[in-house]
Amino acid sequence: MSLKAYQQTQKKFANPRDTEYRLFAQVTSALISSKDLLRTDQRLISAVTRNRELWSTLAIDCAHEGNQLTRELRAQIVSLSLWVSRYTSSVMRENAELEPLIDVNRTIMEGLAPRNEAASSAPPVVPGALA
Prior knowledge:
By secondary structure, this protein is mostly helical. The radius of gyration is 16 Å and the shape is globular. It has five helices and no strands. The chain has one domain (about 15-110). α2 runs antiparallel to α3 and α3 (about 40-65) packs antiparallel against α4 (about 70-95).
């Protein structure tokens, strides 16, 4: 299956919450794997950059009036995005711990996880992502 065909199929059948959960799981897993790396290590730089980009994308999406989330929830997500951006700068400049970024992502993942037993499959769990 070509990449384009896969993307089209995913657009038709993927639940947006599941997609967001998987993305948070990937990004959070990268942050967890980077916790003990030097701040100059490219893997850590990539992990925190990708996390910041994820949150920036969420904030941009929440800024659009057509977004289906409540105004209050959108404002909270934008606020978290701003905090993530500022804290990420502290991680890189001041050697702040990654744990607060990981904790915020885990909390979001908990909110995105399926809530009923009828879910056809559990969302993917990344080792260490929710531990």
